[in-house]
Write a structure and sequence with these properties.
The complex is a heterodimer of chains A (230) and B (246). With 230 residues, chain A is an all-alpha fold. Chain A has one domain. Chain A contains eight helices and no strands. In chain A, 40% of the residues are buried. With 246 residues, chain B is mostly helical. Chain B is globular. Classes of the chains: A mainly alpha (230), B mainly alpha (246). At the A-B interface, helix 1, helix 2 and helix 8 of A face helix 4, helix 5, helix 6, helix 7 and helix 9 of B.
Chain lengths: 230, 246
């Protein structure tokens, strides 16, 4: 018994179908990705400008605002780059890198923001519990509203790609969207309570990561379905 | 053929991996080779053909097929254990590669990319039609490794054929990730990094899965095959050695 041989007509069928199916050029592929990134940037800028900068922008020390803003933006750029990268293998970055980004990015963003606030304001940063809960839920909702279109654009950017670990890439996409939302929130939300920052700005990364993982897995299964014979 | 194809074919014949070393074509290529660093993957004919195809040379797809399809079809046949499904998957993999050819990087290995697409297509297809499941016709069940060299004797071929059936039977009982990790490392000779990329896991993860498959094979085969050799005090059979079971 030997390994089944290649069907003789398979080569001709593949060449014929490939010839009949136009493939996007490198320029088209790059332009599409740039268009998606620009759309996401326009959406985030529009929401930030529509809301206006935080009311304490001029009152607080500059570094308390710029350090967490730059850190959140840097984390978002790193996660976005990792989530969209194809790498040398064409299969995306190593799983360990993606997992590290999924865990580290929101933790680092939240920690740096809290540390900046506590460093600048000390114990006066803590708010009464009732106010904290109301504002925190508001920021959670706003964060998800900011992030969902970014996550949708991320899913569009994956069209045509076959991912070895779709769940992890999807989680990275969710964290990428949450990181951008966190960066925008850092510039527009004046509440400096550490618990508010953790629960209202950084924590939405968890449900968004779960949503991203579920969405990419579901889309992957749908796109990769090959009719089984028999 | 694209204008760059002749240069690529010359590069293929250059025996060195790093540009700048001497070769039979060195006098004519010196001015290029001193400027261009040839990636390691580009020294392979499949990667060269894929690079030409990615640059728009449509005729190179046939060459890519000739070089990659036997490996891909063998991998998918063993994974799916269904010749008809493996044929469909092979066709679909090439169409996906065709659709994504613009994103091919000249230093990327082609086979791990194709294996990943094929495996993902297989898993998602089976999950989508879980109730149907992949059929396993005894006549179609893949068996011996066709990459055998060294002129085995007819007796060895018979032993190997039986052993291959037994190996496939045991692998079929293992978790898919364990069996695929074993196949990628032992049968397709991928590196741990390449196999990890195909499976979407870490290098340690793929080694651990392959080791578990290996241990299962060793445990089961040892009772019926290796044990006989050991009992007679004979050296391990060349067939088992060729199949990566020691």
């Amino acid at each position: 018994m030997s390994t089944p041989s290649l069907p003789e007509d398979l080569r001709a069928r593949i060449l014929a179908r490939a010839a009949a199916t136009p493939a996007p050029t490198r320029t088209q592929t790059n332009l599409r990705l740039v268009a998606l990134i620009v759309t996401a940037a326009v959406w985030l800028l529009f929401m930030a400008l529509a809301h206006g900068r935080r009311s304490d922008w001029d009152a607080e020390p500059g570094w308390m605002l710029w350090v967490p803003l730059l850190n959140a933006s840097l984390a978002a750029v790193v996660v976005t780059s990792l989530a969209l990268a194809r790498g040398r293998t064409l299969l995306g970055p190593r799983v360990t890198w993606l997992l590290a980004a999924v865990v580290v990015a929101p933790v680092l963003s939240g920690t740096v923001t809290v540390a900046s606030v506590l460093g600048a304001l000390g114990s006066s940063a803590w708010l009464p519990r009732a106010m904290e809960l109301r504002t925190t839920v508001g920021c959670d909702v706003f964060s998800v509203i900011l992030a969902l279109p970014v996550l949708g654009l991320f899913l569009l950017s994956l069209r045509g790609r076959t991912l070895p670990a779709p769940g992890i890439v999807g989680a990275a996409g969710g964290v990428c969207a949450a990181s951008w939302a966190h960066a925008v929130l850092t510039g527009i939300c004046p509440w400096n309570d550490p618990l508010h920052i953790i629960l209202g700005h950084a924590a939405p990364a968890i449900p968004l990561a779960v949503l991203g993982a579920w969405a990419v897995r579901a889309l992957s299964r749908r796109a990769n379905r090959v009719p089984l014979r028999g | 053929m694209s204008p760059a194809a002749p240069l690529a074919s010359v590069f293929a014949s250059v025996p060195c991996r790093v540009a700048g070393e001497r070769s039979p074509h060195a006098p004519a290529l010196d001015h290029v080779l001193f400027l261009v660093r040839v990636p390691a993957a580009m020294s392979q004919p499949l990667e060269l053909a894929m690079a030409r195809y990615a640059r728009g040379d449509d005729a190179a797809l046939g060459e890519v097929y000739d070089l990659a399809a036997p490996h891909l079809f063998r991998f998918l046949s063993r994974l799916a254990r269904d010749v008809a499904l493996a044929e469909d998957l092979t066709q679909e993999v090439f169409l996906r590669v065709h659709g994504a050819r613009a994103s091919y990087r000249v230093d990327a290995k082609v086979l791990p990319w194709m294996f990943t697409i094929g495996r993902r297509l297989f898993l998602d297809s089976v999950r989508a039609r879980r109730h149907d499941g992949p059929s396993l016709d005894a006549e179609d069940r893949p068996s011996s490794n066709d990459a055998v060299s060294g002129g085995p004797t007819p007796d060895e071929l018979v032993v190997e054929s039986h052993l291959r059936i037994e190996v496939e039977r045991i692998l079929a009982t293992l978790p898919e990730q364990h069996a695929t990790a074993y196949r990628l490392l032992k049968e397709e000779n991928l590196s741990a990094a390449e196999a990890a990329a195909v499976l979407g896991t870490t290098e340690n993860g793929v080694k651990l899965r392959a080791h578990r498959a290996y241990e299962a094979l060793r445990r089961t085969l040892g009772e019926t095959w290796l044990g006989e050799d050991d009992a007679r005090g004979e050296p391990r059979s060349t067939s088992t050695a060729r199949m990566g079971v020691s």
